[in-house]
Amino acid sequence: SAADARAAKKELQKVERQLDKVSEKETKLHARIADDATDFEKVAKLDAELRDLAAEREELEMRWLELAEDA
Question: Cβ(46)–Cβ(22) under 8 Å?
Fold first, then answer.
């Protein structure tokens, strides 16, 4: 129905905003890793955060694909 399509489109836009935020966080983490390249402990912690963000991005991308089919 039209209402379902509108709801899917609204959710799609929400997911797109979340993806943008994750991308920004990833960019900042990459910069911090480069800045702290000689501090193995800090880099390991930042890398773990980066992996968590990658997993979050993957989930959001899957959700985006599902919603794009319905929109």
Answer: no
Tokens representing residue 44 in the block? 């390991």
- Predicted local confidence at residue 46, as pLDDT: 98
Structure tokens at 58: 């993957």
Round to whole Å and give the CA distance between 51 and 36: 17
Decide: 57 and 23 in contact? Cβ < 8 Å.
yes
By the 8 A CB rule, do 5 and 70 touch?
yes
| Cβ-based neighbours of 43, under 8 Å, separated by 6 or more | 33, 36, 37
Gap between the Cα atoms of 20 and 30, Å rounded: 15
- Rounded Cα–Cα distance for residues 18 and 23 (Å): 9
Model confidence pLDDT, tens digit, residues 22-63: 999 999 999 999 999 999 999 999 999 999 999 999 999 999
